[in-house]
């Protein structure tokens, strides 16, 4: 029985997608092979061949994830030029260039890519690059928070990535950014709690990016209407158990973000 042209194209796209996933899975490994770029190029070819056929967003997400892992291993000097790739891919998805709709993972991978180059590098040089990377991350987060992209809204992973972005892109040892870092953390923490997306991991990240006095000021301010008196010192796990249950009504359901030890 002969396959119809449409079925043949769908099978060809599925095969092409499998290759995209293989190349993407190799990104971030040791060696000089640019697997993320290769997967990206193959995805673009796949999208062109698809024409009006729908493409599962998972293929875009594996490429976005590949860029985030690639950037975690690259020198920070290369960060901004390479960050433009995943950001442009997400913007094209949002703009409808491809016959696929972005989901939460699409946005979250790009936020992660923005801070990945600095995740293990705490030098305070490259302030301009850090600030530009932060602006990219905040723009992606803001697009989710505005709710203009279907069902995409900040989730527990989004908030965890945003707190990590603050930790990496607004380093503590940069005195001039201290007030701004605290203000950003307060703003995003408030939204996180309102959305019920607080998790153990996000709370742990907050406790590391703020000084003890800053953390206590933040919590005291946010708890003022909840009649809760903080007890037991500054241990993050103990503090987390004292937070209002409504703050984590959704975040507590994400197992990967609620392991006991961080």
Describe the structure.
With 262 residues, the chain is mostly helical. It has helices spanning 5-25, 35-50, 57-71, 79-95, 104-115, 127-145, 156-169, 178-194, 200-209, 212-222, 236-241. The model has no long low-confidence stretch (mean pLDDT 87). It is built from eleven helices and no strands.
Order of helices and strands: HHHHHHHHHHH
Strand content: under 5%
Mean of residue pLDDT values: 87
Unreliable spans are none
* Form type: globular
Category by helix and strand content: mainly alpha
Query: Termini separation (Å)?
Result: 56 Å
Please report the total strand number as a whole number.
0
The biggest beta sheet is recorded as: none
- What does the radius of gyration come to? 20 Å
> Count of helical segments?
11
Please give a handful of descriptors for the protein shown:
single chain, 262 residues, mainly alpha, 11 helices, 60% helix, 0% strand
In short:
This protein is mainly alpha-helical and 262 residues long. It is built from eleven helices and no strands.
Topology:
Layout: H1 5-25, H2 35-50, H3 57-71, H4 79-95, H5 104-115, H6 127-145, H7 156-169, H8 178-194, H9 200-209, H10 212-222, H11 236-241
Helix pairs in contact: 1-2, 1-3, 2-3, 3-4, 3-5, 4-5, 4-6, 5-6, 5-7, 6-7, 7-8, 7-9
């Amino acid at each position: 029985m002969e396959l119809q042209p449409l079925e043949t194209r769908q099978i060809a796209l599925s095969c092409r997608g499998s290759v995209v996933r293989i190349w993407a899975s190799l990104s971030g490994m040791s060696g000089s092979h640019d697997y993320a770029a290769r997967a990206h190029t193959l995805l673009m070819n796949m999208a062109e061949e698809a024409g009006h056929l729908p493409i599962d967003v998972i293929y875009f997400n594996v490429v976005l994830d590949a860029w985030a892992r690639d950037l975690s291993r690259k020198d920070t000097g290369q960060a901004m030029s390479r960050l433009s790739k995943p950001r442009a891919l997400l913007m094209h998805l949002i703009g409808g260039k491809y016959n696929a709709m972005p989901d939460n993972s699409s946005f979250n991978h790009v936020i992660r890519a923005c801070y990945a180059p600095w995740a293990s590098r705490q030098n305070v040089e490259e302030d301009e690059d850090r600030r530009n990377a932060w602006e990219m991350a905040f723009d992606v987060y803001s697009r989710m928070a505005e709710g203009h992209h279907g069902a995409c809204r900040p989730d527990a992973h989004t908030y965890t990535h945003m707190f990590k972005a603050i930790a990496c892109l607004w380093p503590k040892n940069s005195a001039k950014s201290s007030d701004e870092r605290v203000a950003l953390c307060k703003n995003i923490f408030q939204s996180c709690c309102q959305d019920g997306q607080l998790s153990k991991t996000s709370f742990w990240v907050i406790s590391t990016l703020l000084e003890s006095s800053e953390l206590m000021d933040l919590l005291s301010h946010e708890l003022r209407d909840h009649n809760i008196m903080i007890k037991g010192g500054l241990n993050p796990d103990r503090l987390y158990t004292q937070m209002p249950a409504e703050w984590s009504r959704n975040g507590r359901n994400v197992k990967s973000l609620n392991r006991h030890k961080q």
